[in-house]
Each structure stands twice: as C-alpha cells, then as structure tokens.
Amino acid sequence: PENQVELAVEGMTCGSCVSHVERALLKVPGVTTATVNLATGRASVLFRGSIASIEDLEAAVRGAGYEAKRII
Ligand code: 9UX
C-alpha cells in the first residue's frame, strides 16, 4: 500500500531548488511520487511504507541541503 506524507521544506529559494528536492525524494527506494511547491514550501510524497520510511524521506531532503519536517 502507498503512504502519503506532507513535508515542510525549508531553504528553497528558486525553481531549481524544487527540482533538487524532487529528485532527491524520487531517488529514495519506494518513493513513487514527489511534488514540491516552492510557494508553500511543502513536499507531497507518495511512497511504499514497506520500503521507505518518513525518516528516509527527511534524510533525503536534508542530504540535498534543505531542512524537512513532517507536517501531516
Ligand atoms: Mo540555485 Mo535554488 O543555487 O537553491 S537551486 S537558489
């Protein structure tokens, strides 16, 4: 089954930042969809909960150079 989570992403200032975060999330095994909104600073992620954890998602965002916190 797929899980959905919203992350608050801090530190994005341009459209390329959005691409960086989306790519980082999509590289995490189990992630199927990652949509990042620059204006709201939010990332919506669909992932297979048996493969990826929310911690994995947060770590990926941080690894790309941004801060992430679960909000929903
Ligand atoms: Mo350009 Mo957005 O360095 O960080 S990708 S401002």
Automatic annotation (TrEMBL):
Start and end residues of each HMA domain: 3-69
Localisation: Cell membrane
Assigned protein family: Belongs to the cation transport ATPase (P-type) (TC 3.A.3) family. Type IB subfamily.
UniProt-recorded name of the protein: P-type Cu(+) transporter
